[in-house]
Amino acid sequence: MSFPNNGSRVDGRVALVTGALGGIGAATCKALAAGGAKVIASDAHRSGAEALLDAMKKLGASCAFFPLDVTKRQDWEALMPQIESQFGLLDILVNNAGIYRFGKVEEASDELLDQLMQVNIRGVVLGAQFAIAQMKRRSPDAPWASMIHLSSIAGLVGSPTSSLYSMTKGAVRLFSKSLALEMAQLGYRIRSNSVHPGIIDTDMAGEVAQALVAKGLDEAQIREHMRAGHPMARMGQADEIARGIRFLASDDAAFMTGSELVIDGGWTAR
User: Fold this and answer.
1) Which of 176, 179, 158, 178 shows the shortest CA–CA distance to 167?
2) Phi-psi region of 47 (alpha: psi -120 to 50; beta: other; left: phi over 0)
3) For labelling alongside 105, which of 61, 113, 243, 265 has CA 20 to 30 A away?
4) Per-residue confidence at 229, pLDDT binned at 50, 70, 90?
């Protein structure tokens, strides 16, 4: 994948990406790095962190990796002062960390519900809360700060296998909209927008397919559904989502807040 320098620019801005070692997260880190940002990558594990840092450094970026469990307030409390001391006040938050779980509502366990709610909702709220604390202290002459929250097509349309996941992604969508209004009402120069990817060809999509196979479904049919559900007749690529995220982070989207950026190959147009 490549991120040409003639795209949206985020020169010198301090960006934090959660879930940075997954497909969309890693691509977003590279896209922001190519756009001139100082990038802080974070994830709950470290596997792949050095390779990501090397890739960003080759793009000329100032960057770092910090472990972060987005569900734990104490992790956020430890991380944010380190960002400020090493890079400055946060300009961009990409609330990307999330998990997918499927199953019937009538069979959902407390553990399953807690996992989805903790990562997909609590993690997003904590990220926004700690980002606001820094963003509102930025210079009044600086461009507006930008918070970008990863939702999904599942936050826009229903799915018979994803009721619980859809619940969390719908929550992210309306949280982002309401937060945009809250920031404006408080006079904070902070934009808030959500991104809604279609099915993206990442490890997560592969894990979903394998989980469905374990339930007795045919893998070829699953893959065909993932492809054919998009009118463009293919799954998306992580860098296609990352470019949209970089756009929302940049001044090219300076008049966008409370909006939804749908990058889904036409899935929700049906």
Assistant:
1) 158
2) beta
3) 265
4) confident
Distance of CA 93 to the CA centre of its chain: 9
Quick check: 165 and 116 in contact, CB under 8 A? yes
100: CB partners within 8 A, 6+ apart: 162, 165, 204, 207, 208
Any idea where the domains of the chain sit in the sequence? 14-200+238-265, 201-235
Given a contact cutoff of 8 angstroms between Cβ atoms, the answer to whether 76 and 68 are in contact is yes
User: Is the separation of the CB atoms in 204 and 100 below 8 Å?
Assistant: yes
Strand-pair category, 145-150 with 63-67: unpaired
Q: How many CB atoms neighbour CB 12 within 10 A?
A: 11
Q: Provide the pLDDT for residue 248.
A: 99
Query: How far from 51 is each of 20, 61, 202, CA to CA, in Å?
Result: 12, 14, 17
pLDDT above 70 for 1: no
Residue of 263, 189, 251 whose CA lies nearest to 8: 251
pLDDT at residue number 219: 77
List the one residue out of 112, 230, 248, 241 whose CA is nearest residue 180: 248
Residues 6+ apart with CB under 8 A from 139: none
For residue 83, report the phi and psi dihedrals to the nearest 5 degrees: -60, -45
Model pLDDT for residues 67-77, shown as the tens digit of each residue: 999 999 999 99
pLDDT in tens, 121-164: 999 999 999 999 999 999 999 999 999 999 999 999 998 888 99
Residue 217 has pLDDT above 80, yes or no: no
State the Cα–Cα distance between residues 20 and 22, nearest whole angstrom: 6
3-state secondary structure (DSSP) of residue 240: helix
Catalytically active residues, by annotation: 165
* 3-state class (DSSP) for residue 157: coil
